[in-house]
């Protein structure tokens, strides 16, 4: 823009703030945008514009504006910190770390930098780095609220022995923080103080009836205790806050996760009547009506929707598969892939459809040589015995998880490889080496394939856990892991073999029973101790039951570093 600016940068900012304070947010945005156009080289104005966007919840826009300020004043540490905070809020913690690393030398003397970097590292899945930066933050400022709370949370997620003490320390100055109280309840549960955890979780639900994390955790505890009415406290919460639709949404989700599908449908129908202006309840009624076979009700509810979304397209595809409407399923899945071209759930359902309608495409998706492998664990003889001993102790204090594929058995809490025990670090290292061997033998990179498009990108683990099943019917129901590109099962302990070797078999490609598709597995893997099964996350998978003994596995998902949508890097980097 040329000519003399009509207003100074400061005046543009003051006008925008005045508009914001009187509630005219759109006007404030128009003013600050015009000001940026007249003063494109004013770093402070870009920074102020970023703060306006942050207060509106437009985090990606805020990150862009903070980044512009940082480019204009590259040595100004607060601008870099603001970039990282906005990127973290926008769901890009790795980008936040990249923005902070060049300022490390100056940042080590700044508690806000240290706390921001620690939070980004935690959300990026690097808890060891997060612990280091939170510790440095607290060295600089022992009473830093975010540092205390963040370090306590990291201690809980890593199962550090002093996690409860750290949480209590943070609570001394942050008594009103519900996340810290929930962390305390989780720490009590993890250390075997189940009754205290239950009492605290109930107190949280009573005092914050609209807070979903508290309601969900109480449901988990009640399910673990074997209570058939594990979700009844959602009704208590709804009576205390009758105008809050989010309680009903959380209640329906908990019932669905606990396999109470008919109850979930009934609750969705009631919520739809209570909140007629909220379309999500029509979608939820359709979802659960379809799942229990009430097809006409499902179709009526779906027809009442006026907006489209990935979630709607996926559920319409599931319903079409259940009713053998192949044309409708293809149309719904095409819409889903338009919303998210490499969504794992969409491709999993597409694979099932193609097995009925286009076997050649189905074979390309899931039957190419090398996509499914059973490999010996690298250094298995050395790393497995201590891991088995440790995991056995962890399972002794674990419970049946809400919303998982288990039918019986126990699953370890949290992310297994975030724990600090050296034994688990050794096991993780062996797994990473084995996964790298898998990747080296995959077919060539194919940018149109939901797994092979990532063949040459950086990979990292995303979630990890251990499952222990006992004889008498314990098994995994067919399911998928929609947050990964590659899924797994490492066999640590197996029951004695039966005569035909079929017990506990891993079945890949058998649909979930609720989809009403009579399709056999594409692959059957007989478990073998010390071996790691690896397969595309777009394959439904489950296990058969076994007649005697006990079975223990460790599992994890793999994602492309940067997320499921990142498939353009072809540098051949190794797994991280």
- C-alpha Rg (nearest Å): 26 Å
Largest sheet composition: 6 strands, antiparallel
Number of continuous helical runs:
25
Euclidean distance between termini CA atoms? 47 Å
Q: Structural class, from helix and strand content?
A: alpha+beta
The best one-word shape is globular
Strands in their spatial order, largest beta sheet: 1-9-6-11-4-3
Based on the structure given, which CATH architecture of the domain at 371-560 is correct?
Sandwich
Bin the helical content: 40-55%
* Unreliable residue runs: 402-407, 564-574
TPR repeats: 43-76
Organism: Alteriqipengyuania abyssalis
Protein name: Tetratricopeptide repeat protein
Keywords: TPR repeat
Observed structural traits:
single chain; 576 residues; alpha+beta; Jelly Rolls; six-stranded antiparallel β-sheet; three-stranded antiparallel β-sheet; Tetratricopeptide repeat protein
Please provide a written account of the structure.
It holds the Pfam family 2OG-FeII_Oxy_5. This protein has 576 residues and is an alpha+beta fold. Helix content is 54%, strand content 10%. A six-stranded antiparallel beta sheet has the order 1-9-6-11-4-3. Mean pLDDT is 91; it is low at 402-407 and 564-574.
